[in-house]
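Possible regression after last week's pipeline update?

I re-ran a chain I had predicted before the update to compare outputs. Posting the input and the new output here so someone can diff against the archived version. Not blocking, just want to make sure nothing changed silently.
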Amino acid sequence: MRLFPYETAAFFRIAHGRELYERWRQTGVGAMLNDPEVAPLVGGIWSLVGDQFNERNSEEAGFEWADLDRIPQGEVAIGLIDRGDDNLGILLLADFDGAQENVDFLVEVLDQRWADRAMVVEEQEIGGETVTIVRDGDDRSSSFGYLIKDCCLIGSNDEVLLGHVLDRWAGRTPTVELTEEDVAESDDDTLEPGPLPGERSFAENPQFQTILKECSTQLEEPPQIVAYIDPILVVRRTMRGNVGASITLATFPALGLDGILSLGGTSSFATENWDTLMHMHLLLDNPRAGVLTLLRFVDGDITPPDYVPAQACNYGTTYLDPVGIYDRVIQLYDHFRYDGAFLDEVESGATNAWGVDFREYFIDNLSGRVTLYSGFDEPNRIQGEQHAICLELIDPEVGQELLDAIRETAGEFWEDVEFGGVQYYSMAPPWMRNMPEENRPFTPAVGILDNTLIVTMSSNVLEQMIEAHQDSRPRLSDSIEYKVIQSRVERLTRGKQMVGFLYNNPAETFRHWFETSQSDGTRSFLGTIGENSPFASNMLGVLEANELPEFDKLEGYFAPTGGYLLDTNTGLHAMMFNMGRELPEAEVEAAEEELSEQP
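New output (post-update):
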C-alpha cells in the first residue's frame, strides 16, 4: 500500500495469492469441495469449463486453461489513480513469489500478443529501470508500460506513476515536477506549503486509514483482502464529458450526497477464531446532511418473530423512525420544488390510488421494525430463493383496512386466500392465472399476521410463515445455531449502536440447489437444451457420471453466518462472520440452557 500514491481513488489488494487459496481450502466450502465423494464432480465440472475455454477463448487469450497455475501467487494489488483533469490512471503490482519460470511464461505470452496485434513496442529508462512501453500505433493515449522487478510485474498507463512507484520501491521520495498551476500557488504568500500530488503514499490517506482502522476490529492478524473506493471521485473522473452525469453530480452537494466519502472493507479466512470474517465501512461526513439524514435508526430486540421458520435462508431485522424519515423526505422534496409539493405530487397520488389516506393508514401505522426473510418453496422449484419483507404495525386493524381498500381498487389482480384460518391476498395478473401454480415465475402475496404486514413474492413462503407462527413448523428463534450467532453478535456490539442484524444459513441454500440438481426435472431440462448446447449436454454427462453423497453427509461442512450493522461517528459499519463447522462448545451449552428455560 505504501507503493501506491496518496491520490489512489480505488484499490484492491490480495496479501498473498497462494496463502489465500490455502486458507480458503480450510473453510467449510473449501473442505467440502475437496471431500473424496465430491471432488470427482468438482473435477469434472472444472475440466468441462477448461475444455470450453480452450476451445473458444485460449487462442485470443494466448494461453490455455492449465496455464492458470502460472498466475502470480504472491501479493497482487491494483489501483485507479486520480490524475486531476486527466482520466484515471491504472497501477498494477503482481508478485510471482519467486517463480521465475512463471515470469518468463508471462513475458513470452505478452511478446506474442503484441506481435499478433502489431502493437508498437519501445523500451524506456524510468527510475533507473528499463520499462517496456506498448501502444496502438501513434495513439499515445493507449500507452501502457510495464517491467519485471524482483519477480514482480509492475504496470501502469502513466509513465510518471511508474517512476513514482520505483522511487518508493527504492526508498526515495518521488520526484514531482511542478506544473504552472503549482508554481502560481507557491508564489501566493497566503497559502501554506504542502505536499505535491504524488509525493505522499496511499498509506497516508486519512480516509483509507480510517476505513482500515474501522475494519481491523476482531482481527488477530492482517487481513488477506483489502478493498477501497472513493465512489464519487471515480464516477466524476470516468464520466467526464457526460452531460447527464455532470448535471447529476452537480446536485450532490445540495442533496448531501457529497457526504459519501469512501467505501472499503477487509476479508480474512481460516483464522484462529473465524472461518470467514468480513468488514465493510461506508465513510460518511459528520455531521450528515441532505438525504443522509434519512438514516434514522432506533434500538430494538433482534430476536426473530415467531413467524420466521427455522428453515430460513436469510433473516435480518432493523428498527427505523418511519415518521421522522417521512417528514424529512417531505422537507427535502419541498426544498427542491415548493412548499406542499410532496403532498400535491406524491402523497395525494398514493392516497387516490389506494383509496385511503396514505399517511394515516400506512406511514403513521408503522412501528418501525422491518424484518427481511428469505426461504425456498416446498417442494423445491427452480425459481430459487423467495423473499419477504415484514413491516410491524401499530394497529393491525388499520392495516387490514388499508389492504381491503387496495383490494377494492385492484380487484382484478388480487385473489382472496385462506390458509390456517388466516386471510391473505394472492396477486396474479390475468395472463398468469391460467398457468399451473408450479409453472408461475412468481406468486406474490400480501397479508397481515398478528401485528405484521407481510409482502412476499411467494404465497408458499407466506404459508410457511403462517405455520411457524402457529407453532406447526419449527421456528428460527428455537434453533441452537441461531441462538449462538445472536449471542455472539450481542457480545461483539455491546456498548455500540447496532442498527441492523443478519443471519444466514448457507446449508439451506445448498440443500435447495443440491436437491434441485438431483431432480428428474433438472436432468430432463439439461437434456432438452443439450440438444442444441454441447456444454449443457456435457454437464448432464458429468452429473450422471459423478453421483453425490446424500445431503446429510455434506451438511456438516456448512455453518451459519452472522452479521451486524453499526451506526458510528464515521459512518456505517458492517461485519459478517462464520465461526466454522464446529460452534464453540461453551456457547452451544449456553444456548441450550437458555432454550430449556423458555416457557
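Follow-up from reviewer: compared with the archived run. The chain is about 40% helix and 25% strand. Marking as no regression found.
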